Amino acid sequence: MAQSSTIEWTNSTWNPVTGCDKVSPGCKFCYAERMARRLKAMGSENYRNGFELALHPLVVEMPLRWKKPQVIFVNSMSDLFHKDVPLEFIQQTFDVMVRASWHQFQILTKRADRLAAVYASLPWPQNVWMGVSVETPAYVHRIHDLRKVPAAVRFLSVEPLLAPIPNLPLTGIDWVIVGGESGPGCRPTEADWIRQIRDKCLVQEVPFFFKQWGGVQKKRNRRLLDGDTWGQMPTPRLWRARNKSVATAGAI
Can you give the pTM of this predicted structure? Predict the structure, then answer.
């Protein structure tokens, strides 16, 4: 079976790669790092080295054995586009996603520069969505790299939102997830920062998903924003048509 997930915007997780290292402020209190330490203490073989980067070839073909269609978050415990993951391994992972066409795969990276460098060497079927994390205005450049990728859905994970991002560019973006930071030491997210992004999504008709307020007890804080639960999901479009519009439109 797939590893079921409590992440609000997915069903399951699949981790052919585990472990990572920190590249930006959003990584400071990484939940995957905390989980990896816990799993190592529990004796999990795939986490015997804790949060050190590790490839797991025996895990790569697992989705082919999961017959029930699922929405699957790829590498919730790592980053598929980490510099130390060989391109050949990334290609093997994509090959499985192509073959497992009954599933929907969601990939998220902070290494948008690596993504931009290798995307042309990868297939982009309709069941693979590609996203980047953007936690402050300093990392908006990741979006520009994402827009080069011919994915059926391009999405943003603006989580943890650590500062207002008034000029978040949404041209060519199909979905925006926003959330505050949770867990020990979490940094606050202001409601007006979230509203600013939500309102821009509404104007530009980009589906908006508010994941969490965060905090140490995030479930107690719930997901309501101005009395509503925002759980909009994207509708995949033909990427050729979208790419044409992106090429002719100026960034907002």
Answer: 0.90
